[in-house]
Amino acid sequence: MREAIGGAVLIKLVMFFIAIYVCFLAIAVNYSITYRVKNQIINLIEAYEGADNAMPYIEQYIADIGYYRTALGNVAYNNPNCSNGYCIEEIDSTRGTYYKITTYVVFDFPIVGRLANFPVTGETRVIYSL
User: Fold this and answer.
1) Of 52, 34, 37, 35, whose CA–CA distance to 90 is shortest?
2) What is the pLDDT of residue 74?
3) Rounded to whole angstroms, what are the CA distances from 121 to 9, 30, 39, 93?
4) Among 53, 35, 43, which Cα is nearest to 120's?
5) Contact present, 51 and 45 (Cβ < 8 Å)
6) DSSP assignment of 85-114
7) Mean pLDDT across the stretch 91-112?
8) SS3 state of residue 117
9) Is 66 helix (H, G, I), strand (E, B) or coil?
10) Model confidence over 3-28: pLDDT tens digits?
11) Of 2, 20, 90, 127, which sits most exposed with the smallest number of CB within 10 A?
């Protein structure tokens, strides 16, 4: 009987570590998708020299990759530049305009709900106005 109890404890311990490993893997995949979306938005804005020109291409990319986040938190509700899980903020400088892009890593689990919402930000190069 002693070996049966020891085997059950060992199986529970292995299942616990497998669950921890799967959670870390899911977080890493979610984080990498968020960084990839942010970098692609930056690339599209720089390629089309502005957010207005790049917006159809950004929306198409977001639809293709499947990155869609709703209800980003209190920051996004009051900001009209936020939609579909990303925010684009236009910042004027003396030489031109650059954009600050913010995407969000959202940890939303089916049973527990939303645990955390972390912003990931990046900036474009200066787009010179002629």
Assistant:
1) 52
2) 47
3) 44, 15, 10, 18
4) 35
5) yes
6) TEEEEEEE-SSEEEEEEEEEEEEEETTTEE
7) 84
8) strand
9) coil
10) 667 788 889 999 999 999 988 888 88
11) 2
Span 53-96, pLDDT tens digits: 999 999 899 888 877 665 555 455 556 667 777 889 999 988 88
Residue type, 118: F
C-alpha separations of 32 from 6, 38, 52, 105, 110 in Å: 39, 10, 26, 9, 21
Ranges assigned E (strand) in 12-85 = 82-83
Q: Which two tokens stand for residue 15?
A: 């299942």
Q: What is the DSSP letter of 80?
A: T
Contact criterion met (CB below 8 Å) for 53 and 99: no
Q: Which two tokens stand for residue 103?
A: 């995407």
Tokens, residue 130: 């002629």
Query: Are the CB atoms for 37 and 65 separated by under 8 Å?
Result: yes
Label residue 119 by pLDDT band (50, 70, 90): confident
Tallying the residues shown for the chain, one arrives at 130
Tokens of residue 26, six digits? 């899911």
Q: Return the residue matching tokens 């995407």.
A: 103
